[in-house]
Amino acid sequence: MIKSFSKNRNSHAVEPKDAVERRSAKPVICYGVNALPAFDTDFYQQARQDMKKVAEIVVPPRDGGSFTVPAGHFFRIVSVEGPQVGDLNLWNANDLSERFFSGKTRQLHATHVSTGDRLWSNLPGLRPMATITEDTLAWYGWDEDGAGVHDVIGTRCDPYTNYLLKGTDYNHCCHSNLTRTLASARDLPVAEAETLVHDVLNVFMCTGFTRDTHQYFMKASPVRPGDFLEFFAEIDLLGALSTCPGGDCGSSHSDDQTACYPLKVEIYRPAERALTGWNTPERNGYGGQHGLGC
Ligand SMILES: [Zn+2]
């Protein structure tokens, strides 16, 4: 017997006689990623062996901070002081129209990412912007609620949804933190910067979907001071990180009640010649006709 739950409480849809048969179709992974270049563990391990820290920033609680990472460098997002979730945006540092594509990253890899996964850029570039090279929370895996760490599901907390649900203004949501940060990093009008802010990688956030209603849930992050998520910049990157007002996202967000902590971003340069043979990935090779003139 296949257990099923009603998707929509308000629906009057009548179950057909062959419902069991229809539900028994086998799942097929949408994207076979075997054709992609495999994660070259040896290369990245070698490259990170003698790397030297060349810069760092500390993002205060309920705020944002920006950083740049040249292609071929590493960066780490590090937990300091207490459990804290971070919302990450990435842009091509030389062309802000190319930016992180959370949805396609989710489709190509999974709902949550870890070592060996790549962060892909939006269409039409669709190339790896960064590769995850170390994740001290990889041990967490999937828990009994089906939750994992570092999701590419949630978009970012924002003042519009907050207003929709609570009818109040809250100005330190991740969306606003990222907007202010980008505006100041690139000297852009706030309204222009806001249009460039995009769906995030939820660093350290522990999330899943409830089993009965498939609603997005969060639970207290297992991150502790000293934990980090490390990336290799495949292209020149501008990054912005927001320290979410939800803190460890174990209770609420978009308010001033929750305990929040800073996050640190560290930039590392690998040893000379460590990148021999490596090249920054090209933009996607699709011809771009879209069915016109062909
Ligand atoms: Zn947030």
What fraction, in percent, of the residue positions are helical? 10-25%
Helix and strand composition category: alpha+beta
Mean pLDDT: 94
Low-pLDDT residue spans = none
* Major β-sheet profile: 7 strands, antiparallel
Strand content: 25-35%
> What is the 3D form?
globular
The domain tally reads 1
CA radius of gyration is: 20 Å
Outline the structure in words.
This protein is α+β, with helices and mostly antiparallel strands and 294 residues long. It has one domain (42-269). The protein has helices at residues 19-23, 41-49, 102-108, 159-166, 174-186, 190-196, and strands spanning 52-59, 64-69, 74-79, 86-92, 95-99, 118-120, 128-135, 148-151, 201-209, 216-219, 228-233, 237-243, 263-269. Strands 2, 4, 5, 8, 9, 10 and 12 form a seven-stranded antiparallel β-sheet that branches. A six-stranded antiparallel β-sheet has the order 1-13-3-11-7-6. Strand 6 (118-120) and strand 7 form a beta hairpin. Helix 5 (174-186) packs across helix 6 (190-196). The longest helix has 13 residues, at 174-186. The protein is globular and about 65 Å long. It starts with 18 loop residues before the first helix and ends in a 25-residue tail after the last strand. The protein binds zinc ion. The site of zinc ion (ZN) has 9 residues, from loops. Residues 87, 156-157, 173-174, 244-246, 253 line the site of zinc ion (ZN).
